Amino acid sequence: MTKRNYYPILPIIAGFALTACVTINIYFPAAAAEKVADKIIEEVWKTGGKPGGNTQSGGKPGDDAGNKTDKAKP
Amino acid sequence: MYKQLIRCTALVLLGLFLWAGHAGAVDFEANTPAVTRLKQNMQQRHNQLAPFYDTGAVGLTRDGLIVLRDANAVPLSGRQAVNALVAAENQDRNALYREIALANNHPEWENDIRSTFAQRWIASARSGWWYQQGNGTWQKK
Is the ipTM of this complex over 0.85? Predict the structure, then answer.
């Protein structure tokens, strides 16, 4: 008796589950991407880069132009 | 017979839900060797680029790149070097956006990633640096 009530529900749930899978994978996770971007930017633009820049430029055998750009630093 | 079928379907559905939940919980991926290499390149280059951000010679564009926006702020002798730095940086930035999209198995996300980065570069910029607004005009932070 009660078993019969299952039948119309199952395909609905199945359809729901399948669309859920698809939408989850297609949607761009903006918040997570922002977090990752912030982390990468922080690493690339390390605030310690400014004082450390002088010692690094001195150790580099780099080209003339490269040295000139370092001199321009205040 | 029907009971068995229902049970079987229920199990499959449970598995699907678990799988979907897992897929949804997976973090945004950005830890591949290519991304790490690009980050290191950009980190090293930043020491050379920072003075040009400070003087406003180089600015952050609205599409997540950089550009020599005021060539007069750079002495003629150093201009070629700055151009090379900007070109190399942009190449790495484009590659970074592409590699992150690929790391997530969604190459079509590249533009979303680019615009996310464009906003975050500008938000993280030091005051005094120049950036391009949405309408294309330049603004000092």
Answer: no
